[in-house]
## 1
Amino acid sequence: MFNMTQELVKILGIDPARLRLEWISSAEGTRFAEVATEFTEQVKSLGPSSLKQAA
Amino acid sequence: MTAIAELIDVTQTYFCLDCGVCTGSCPVAKVFPDFSPRQIIERSLYELEDFSDDTIWSCLTCAQCSVRCPADIDFPEFVRLMRDEAHAQGFDGIPAHNGMLQTITDIQTLGIGQNRNFWIDEGQTADKGDIFYFVGCRPYFDVVFRDIDAGSIKGARNVLKIINACGVKPVVSNEEKCCGHDALWNGNEEKFKKLAESNLDLIRSSGAKKVVFSCPEGFYTFKNFYPKYFGDLEFEPVHILDFLADKLNEGSIEFEEKDEVVTYHDPCRLGRLAGVYDAPRKLLESIPGIELREMPRSRENGVCCGTTGWMNCSSCSKEIQVERLTEASDTGAGTLVTACPKCQIHFRCAKAAFDLEIEVNDLYDIVADRLKV
């Protein structure tokens, strides 16, 4: 399902780097914080998305 | 005047004879007795019907009822207008596949830069020209329905191969949007208008005089609904069957002989709604080695593939599909040929789910496969 969504996002002209899937258990709070921070930074560095520019 | 009374006025359903031919003909009513076109009309006439009635979303809008109606009532159009108002009041159908296909077309209304032409490999295309090939949603379908081997990209490549074999390099654009067919039949007129306006601008800027379709929904929507909403078109929508028929008559296209017994399933947008019955049959019969066997329910009586507008897909849809595939097998044909990418997906889904033997193939795959280049 995730691979499919990644492919669809590419066809729609949205950077697939804006999409991420991670499995984190409720016992892994630190890991969750790390992933959320890292992904937020990644999306920020990509700038405004094509969707925002189009809307 | 209430919204229902207005609807009756516009669609002239007061001519209803209450004969029940609609419900008796309806493929949905046969498997889902709660749904009755006759009762929906009758309740509307007494203003007992309201827009929260969820059975209006079960209609396949396949027009089996309206072609038989002695009072010429256009029930699919009645349902479409009812859905428009229902949607405005906050009632909707149940989107299939978790609404993924509706989301894909929602995003397309935003004017983003798509990469939908990724499938083009050996085919010849141009940036500007007289002929535009409107591919339709095939690039998206291919990804979403890969698990049932939708074959949508293969179909797009084959249609392009056929157009090239006719000596034409068509314009194919990354900026093409969904034609808006599903939005229209999902009761979402606003979304339809956004998509349609964008397509009209695109075709205008390409300079094309003819737009070629292989998808019956795209063809019918452009031919019927675009002029209805936007006035006369500056180009001509052409179905690939007509485009190909001219070349066949000229004798510029030849086929290799390969024996195969097939039966043909009429897609409702191409058959009952656009009136194209003979062209696909003539094309199949002109291919040496192909034997066409008709199903008992064909042409005007051809039964729908079971779902429309990626909505309200249910066990009833599956029942309709399995019955249709069994009807196809019973002719002795090894392949059910259809001319609509959605019919192909729906039948391949039922074939996979019920492990049926019959092959389901696109008309243009068969043609392209046998083309002598």
## 2
Amino acid sequence: MIILKIFLYFISLLVPGYLTLWCIKTRRPLANLLNLALGYGLGSFFVTLLYFTAVFWMHMAASLSLWWLVCLIISLLSGFFIFFRHGIQATETKNIKEIKTTKRQKIIILIIIAFVVVNSVSLISSTLVRPVATFDSLSMWSGKAKTLYFNNKLDFNPDSQYFLGGGGHNNYPWQIPLMQLGLSLNFGGYNDLYTNFIFLAFFIALLILVHSFLFRITNFYKATILTFFLFSLPLVFYHGFNSYADLALSFYITGSLIYLFKWLEFKNRADYYLSISFFAAAFFVKDAALLYLPAFFAIFFYQILKKEIKKYECFRYFISSFCLLLPWIFFKFMWNLSYSNSGSGLNMIFPVKLILSFLGSLFVSYSWNIWIFIAILVFIIKFKKIINDKLAFSAWIFVGISIISLILAFSFAAVSQYAYDQTALSRTMMPLIISSFLAVGFSLKENKI
Amino acid sequence: MGLLYFLPETISTINIIPGYFLGHFPMILIIGLFLSLIVYLCYKLKRKKKIEKDGDFLLTIFFLFWLILTAFWTVANVLDYKRNQVYYHYDLPKKQIARVCNLLTTDDGLCRIFSFIKNIQAIVPPGAIVKIEAIDTEKTFLEYYIYPKYKYTENNLEADYLLYYPEKIIKKNK
């Protein structure tokens, strides 16, 4: 029965997400792992956004029937569009080479499978026995879900301890708490153990998304090794069963980047819209998405400079994302909720301590294994290729600008203490590290996307 | 931490995974620099063209170096899995206690909040409004676990009971 309830919850996200995806791009095989991953991402975003609108704007009770009504509305709307207008033909890439591997490569792939199986058992076991217990989960992500679940309605009284969900930061976005609320509503009782499956699903979806992309631009062997590196990044793996927003944020930023690159290559509108949707979703997951905004701007700026795209396409990209997020942005505006995490004010101390903290995370901690060395080596060895390939260069621009953006944000904003004490720096870097997988993939590229 | 002293839940944190050390030297740095040296030697000595053209060869080298620490990490995960088996049949509140107590072995204060919650439940009637006086982390944990049985407030006048932690004092306020 428990499995059925959890299954039904995921169906409630996958069906609207899948139909929305079908709206955007047509004529693709339905039984496709990548489409499932994309459907999960899109469904989670659109369902929680509409649910947010109903509960936060229309002051409706946060109930199970409302949850399913929202799913039904999105599914029907998508179905309507699918029925009455042709979707956009998705990018179908040129023939992907058949999976050909040498004997040595086959042995390595077998080793990878063995490692993945053993560690996956451990991951699933952790998902099944470890309820949320880490600070930010209790104070925000799961805390808000729990409050809303038992209060039934959002508290709009500024004097109340439960004002706008209560918790540590009532300015934080709601996708993650609402997803947890949705699972508990479907489950029929607040449960902070089974919510782990939400994050496990994001972890699997991220791996599918990255493998699928790398497979298209490189080959099966390279894609498998790189995806294995991603799978066994200890910090990302640990977030695979913990109720934090960083993994979901990484999923959306990565998805947005992948489809942005695809659009830049083929100029297909379906990829453009997918990228916009994922980009907007990132902001409904965590405000830290803002740190990656300059890197997105930089890619557009570079592509405009190279005359690959037009200015209005860049403008439309950000405006469309903004429009998708209107319910959340207006809500923030209306309640005067800031983007800052710890008040305003600049910390103008020269960031030596911060740089050391940054280097500590990259080169001393085990959070990323030896990935940073691998990325640097690939960058040096393939430098000539990178500067001659506009997409590879764009991917590395994203990585570079994100690093600068993170350092500046942690140096000059009042959040620098979270970098010094290593309570936020490494996990805030997660989307950056994962985007570097795309950059490395481009550097080892064999095919068009 | 030492190579064989790694169990994910007892040492890992959600914020950063501490590094392995060989003496005073971080293993990541040692392995990473050694990898760079090997790639440099291959590049300079005889396989320059192969490395430039064939990413598969390069990735195979990376993979072999990657496995060094991943092997230890996998052993740690297997040990972790074995330890998890005890908890499968626990109910949710027991799992919560087990996780908090295992997660933060260095901070007994958080583990002990559950015995305090038991005391609260024995004394304070359900539905009462409480004010918690504790440091930030412990306060957050207490607030999360006593809700919805008790609502919490910051306002002294509103509170039916005042709870002090780690002193474990429960005081009637109204």
